[in-house]
């Protein structure tokens, strides 16, 4: 133990600094040494204060909370109670408290302090649950040890006596905190203390154990809690602040302090720890509820027995010994799924899957004892699996929401990786894309949950559910996860007993699980090459049907930004076209003029007559089915505040001239409209019109837009700004550059650096145009800058397809040369390079 003879802040500060700078001591030894050092300092302060205040015996200094547990992180608060027996006068106590508290404040340390008698401490604990939890870890520092011992004894006795009332209160507090801060095991910027599965939950488990009503499963729990404390220590040392939130920009540095490879390794370790604590919490709180339920059911029966009414059914609750069969070797008992007395896991290798499937179908948790018995005694399944094992897996996956809890129970005891060895690669693996809500493994289970709701749409729901479970299994391997996943899916499908044809279908689904959504949102569906390419890849109607359902389930399980009725309508439109081709119908020829609606023709004629742009705005509900027409025209009056439509269709007809696409995109950006989709094409005017004066014809731009925030602009205001931008009186470039400069000055998230834009050519995507694909960080005016960059190269943009997921934009542009032909390969590569160089430069330049 470090010794310091100087009780002042200077001596303690120097010793504290030396301790924190010691590279040889970290983790529990450093936390314990820091607590010991602080004890010595505070004890000396108490001794000096007692002497100066003239107080004899009857005062003690007590550490509570984390300090009471001897777990001081570099920037932890000091939770201290000055305990006294009530014999000293108030002025002497105030002088003693000042003698202790002021040096702590002078050090700049956070201090949570109180001055109480034992009775006052008990009274405050009875009223405030958080105070009572802190006192459960009370530890004597200095002074009258008998005072501290008496307080500890009475506080623990109170806690055990009040547990039936206070534990439900604690459970509600934990649930509310989890809802507010989220689940630690899935957060990209987790709060190590407050999030579900964090340090607060670990402390709650200690409190439950102290109540003697239940105890948490101990295996791995102390280690998990220790890893979270180590991460918090490293976070405090890295930032120099008392923070619990592990921000993105700090993760690599924290990983370095802990000796880990990188931020992903850090997050995976934190997720694994949080998962252990969360599972232990679930199991323990179920046990608490069971015990309290049993107690409440026992009291009426006991009263009936004492009153001479034995045998007349004094209680309303079920008999704790009642067991209801669910499946072979599996029964329900007291709200949980347990193994039957005759079950022989050592002779029944399918029993783990049968028990899991029965639990999920019944919507009940698997008991901890049952899962551990299965883990310890179950025999491995033969390869390939027997048909019953495969059917039980499919039943488990098809149970819906209840699948998640059962799957987590199996995973907590290592059964999942025993059944599916490739699962280890994706277990607790973080996903850096902010669109994703879950780790890779949980996303796969969530996709199966979503797929179960779509199983009536397909003829082979078994293949849909297994594909959902495996579609991202390749993310644990280097390279394209779809390519790696195809190989793994073939192996897993054969292992679990599918025949050769089904294995081929599953491999195709995993390899191409992104095909439909990427094609629908980034390619021109009116190009027959697009539809034929998808049809050739899919190969058959059954696979297309499964892929359609898998696409929706995958997107819904990803997060709210990954799916909408708009995306669904695009995918459904693509599926309809591909189905027609697979049925033998010819793909529509893009070279034939597209049908012009009456409204489009009206707008084109008016644009030709006036020589300027003409606009129409239509509200579009996300509930519209594919192919439905837009709603009523949207032209809100100034100052109106009604509900806004989620999506708006904007049609712009304008005489053909250079720069139409970037100019229109720039005007939309100025009005803070987010572009979801864009299309540009020439419109044929009625033959009776004399078009000699409009040699360049009329262009029609179709946009799907949404307001970034605030109200949608009026069509008249958009038209006026577009007219000014086209004639040069509105400097779009300068206006957007000003806004971009403001964004750079006040970034939304400090320290997060986006990767540079990437522009590529998508070969073979079209027979009549060249597809240039741009991937970049989404930002105001991005489409305007891309349009200007393309215009500068001299190519003609036939159509644009915009897709935004979270902060990432993926935009595809169908371009031709001046003669309307696709670009030569070398020329296309040069164009892509020029656009990328332009976008990498200063925006707006």
Automatic annotation (TrEMBL):
Gene Ontology MF terms: [protein-PII] uridylyltransferase activity; phosphoric diester hydrolase activity
Domain ACT: 649-739, 771-845
Name of one Pfam family that matches: GlnD_UR_UTase
GO BP terms in the entry: regulation of nitrogen utilization
Similarity-based family: Belongs to the GlnD family.
Role, per record: Modifies, by uridylylation and deuridylylation, the PII regulatory proteins (GlnB and homologs), in response to the nitrogen status of the cell that GlnD senses through the glutamine level. Under low glutamine levels, catalyzes the conversion of the PII proteins and UTP to PII-UMP and PPi, while under higher glutamine levels, GlnD hydrolyzes PII-UMP to PII and UMP (deuridylylation). Thus, controls uridylylation state and activity of the PII proteins, and plays an important role in the regulation of nitrogen metabolism.
Free-text note regarding domains: Has four distinct domains: an N-terminal nucleotidyltransferase (NT) domain responsible for UTase activity, a central HD domain that encodes UR activity, and two C-terminal ACT domains that seem to have a role in glutamine sensing.
Protein name (database record): Bifunctional uridylyltransferase/uridylyl-removing enzyme
């Amino acid at each position: 133990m470090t010794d310091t003879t100087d009780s002042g802040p200077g001596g303690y500060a120097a010793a504290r600094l030396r301790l924190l700078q010691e590279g040889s001591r970290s983790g529990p030894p450093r936390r314990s040494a820091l607590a010991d050092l602080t004890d010595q300092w505070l004890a000396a302060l108490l001794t000096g204060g007692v002497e100066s205040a003239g107080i004899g015996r009857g005062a003690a200094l007590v550490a509570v909370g984390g300090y009471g547990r001897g777990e001081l992180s570099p920037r932890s608060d000091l939770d201290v109670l000055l305990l006294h027996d009530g014999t000293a006068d108030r002025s002497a106590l105030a002088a003693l408290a000042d003698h202790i508290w002021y040096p702590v404040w002078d050090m700049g340390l956070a201090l949570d302090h109180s001055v109480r008698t034992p009775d006052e401490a008990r009274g405050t604990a009875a009223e405030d649950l958080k105070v009572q939890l802190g006192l459960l870890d009370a530890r004597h520092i200095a002074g009258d040890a008998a005072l501290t011992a008496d307080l500890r004894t009475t506080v623990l006795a109170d806690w055990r006596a009040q547990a039936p009332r206070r534990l439900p209160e604690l459970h509600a507090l934990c649930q509310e905190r989890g809802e507010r801060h989220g689940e630690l095991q899935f957060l990209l910027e987790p709060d190590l203390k407050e999030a579900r599965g964090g340090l607060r939950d670990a402390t709650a488990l200690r409190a439950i154990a102290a109540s003697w009503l239940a105890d948490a499963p101990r295996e791995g729990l102390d280690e998990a809690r220790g890893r979270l404390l180590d991460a918090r220590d490293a976070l405090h040392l890295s930032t120099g602040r008392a923070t619990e939130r592990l921000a993105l920009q700090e993760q690599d540095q924290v990983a370095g302090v802990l000796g880990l490879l990188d931020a992903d390794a850090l997050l995976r370790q934190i997720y694994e720890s949080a998962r252990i604590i969360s599972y232990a919490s679930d199991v323990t709180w179920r046990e608490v509820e069971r015990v309290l339920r049993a107690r409440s059911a026992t009291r009426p029966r006991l009263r009936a027995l004492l009153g001479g009414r034995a045998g007349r059914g004094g209680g309303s609750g079920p008999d704790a010994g009642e067991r209801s069969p669910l499946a072979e070797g599996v029964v329900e008992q007291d709200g949980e799924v347990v193994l039957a007395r005759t079950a022989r896991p050592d002779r029944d290798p399918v029993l783990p899957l049968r028990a899991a499937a029965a639990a999920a179908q019944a919507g009940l948790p698997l008991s901890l004892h049952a899962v551990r018995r299965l883990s310890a005694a179950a025999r491995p399944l033969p390869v390939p699996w027997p048909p019953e094992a495969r059917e039980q897996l499919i039943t488990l996956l098809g149970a819906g929401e209840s699948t998640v809890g059962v799957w987590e129970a199996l995973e907590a005891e290592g059964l999942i990786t025993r059944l599916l060895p490739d699962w280890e690669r994706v277990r607790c693996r973080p996903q850096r894309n902010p669109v994703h809500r879950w780790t890779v493994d949980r996303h796969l289970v969530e996709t199966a949950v979503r797929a179960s709701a779509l199983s009536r749409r397909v003829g082979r729901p078994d293949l849909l559910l297994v594909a959902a479970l495996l579609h991202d299994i390749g993310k644990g391997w280097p390279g394209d996860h779809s390519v790696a996943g195809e190989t793994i899916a073939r192996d897993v499908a054969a292992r679990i007993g599918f025949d050769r044809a089904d294995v081929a279908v599953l491999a195709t689904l995993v390899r191409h699980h992104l095909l439909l959504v990427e094609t629908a949102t980034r390619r021109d569906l009116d190009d027959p090459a697009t539809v034929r390419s998808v049809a050739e890849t899919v190969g058959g109607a059954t696979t297309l049907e499964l892929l359609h359902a898998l696409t929706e389930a995958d997107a819904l399980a990803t997060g709210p930004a990954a799916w909408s009725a708009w995306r669904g309508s695009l995918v459904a439109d693509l599926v309809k076209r591909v189905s027609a081709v697979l049925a033998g119908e010819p793909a529509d020829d893009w070279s034939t003029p597209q049908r012009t609606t009456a409204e489009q023709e009206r707008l084109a004629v008016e644009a030709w007559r006036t020589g300027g742009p003409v606009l129409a705005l239509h509200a579009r509900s996300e509930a519209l089915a594919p192919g439905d027409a837009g709603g009523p025209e949207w032209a809100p009056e100034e100052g109106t505040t009604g509900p806004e439509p989620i999506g708006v269709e904007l049609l712009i007809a304008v005489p053909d001239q250079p720069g139409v696409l970037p100019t229109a995109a720039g005007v939309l950006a100025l009005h803070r409209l987010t572009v979801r989709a864009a299309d540009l094409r020439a419109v044929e005017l009625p033959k009776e019109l004399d078009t000699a004066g409009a040699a360049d014809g009329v262009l029609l731009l179709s946009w799907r837009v949404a307001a970034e925030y605030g109200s949608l602009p009026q069509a008249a205001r958009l038209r006026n700004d577009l007219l000014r931008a086209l004639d040069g009186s509105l400097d779009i470039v300068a206006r957007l550059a000003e806004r971009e400069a403001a964004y750079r000055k006040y970034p939304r998230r400090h320290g997060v650096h986006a990767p540079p834009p990437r522009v590529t050519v998508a070969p073979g995507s079209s027979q009549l145009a060249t597809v240039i694909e741009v991937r970049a960080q989404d930002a105001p005016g991005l489409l305007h800058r891309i349009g200007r960059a393309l215009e500068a190269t001299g190519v003609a943009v036939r159509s644009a397809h915009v897709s935004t997921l979270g902060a990432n934009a993926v935009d595809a542009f169908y371009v031709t040369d001046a003669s309307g032909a696709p670009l030569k390969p070398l020329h296309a590569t040069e164009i892509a390079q020029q656009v990328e160089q332009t976008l990498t430069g200063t925006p707006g330049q």
